[in-house]
Amino acid sequence: MELLGQAIATIPGVTGWRIDKDELMVDAERERLLSVMTTLRDDPRFAFEQVMDLCGVDWPDRTERFDVVYNLLSVTLNQRVRVICTASETTPVPSVHTVWPAATWWERETWDLYGVVFEGQPDLRRILTDYGFEGHPMRKDFPLTGYTEVRYDEDRKAVVYEPVRLTQDWRSFDFLSPWEGMTTLPGDEKVFKERQAEAEAEAKANAKASEGKAS
How much is the pLDDT for 141? Predict the structure, then answer.
């Protein structure tokens, strides 16, 4: 793995590499990403024929807040590598769909969920959210309740979007859990009554004994 990392480090556009948790990770310049990926596919030393996954990671405190992560597999040489490049909300990342056509699905998903734009991708459409959805739900600054809600309007005979409405005030439910509040399980009523009668009889006996000592 170290030899592979050293070899990949010689590719123009690769800025660094490391081994973390037995996985080889490589950092690449965004502007030269396409040439780096082409070399990783075509060079017989690497032969990464497949892109197994492509995803985004959000770091809101950074200037370039997104990591775009590519997981590559070489079936021929039985080796893997993870390539990472950074991007901002407005900086496009070169599309690798010309290197691996299957990347189109992953790029669409990353754009849909994180808002990372892939330059040169001819089919950059939403893939998980609705086509009319506004925003990108995996961003850490996205509101948990969302902006709109969807319902079927019987009068219009169509699905309509409306601003989110809370149908009731927030309430605090301070109930006991079944393990804390349940003293009698279903089917044990008879046993419970017998134990309750024994406890009452014992309490009366203790009370009489206390009165006798007092007198």
Answer: 72
Name every residue whose Cβ is closer than 8 Å to that of residue 149 and which is 6 or more positions away in sequence: 161, 162, 163, 164, 165
What distance, in Å, lies between the first and last C-alpha atoms of the chain?
90
Residue 5: its H or E element:
helix 2-8
Cα separation, 33 vs 103, whole angstroms: 14
**60-77: per-residue pLDDT in tens?**
889 999 999 999 999 999
In the chain, pLDDT over 90 holds for what percent of residues? 56
Cα angle at 125 between 121 and 128, to 5 degrees? 130
Q: What is the pLDDT of residues 109-120, one digit of tens each?
A: 999 999 999 999
Q: Are 93 and 33 in contact (CB under 8 A)?
A: yes
For residue 181 the two structure tokens come to: 């509040």
What pLDDT score does 28 carry?
A: 97
Tell me how far apart the alpha carbons of residues 64 and 70 are, in angstroms, rounded to a whole number.
17
Question: Which residue from 85, 78, 84 is spatially nearest to 1, judged by alpha carbons?
Answer: 78
Spatial contact of 16 and 9, defined as CB atoms under 8 Å apart:
yes
pTM: 0.67
| 201 touches 207 (CB < 8 A) | no
Judged on CB neighbours under 10 Å (0-12, 13-18, 19+), 146 is: middle
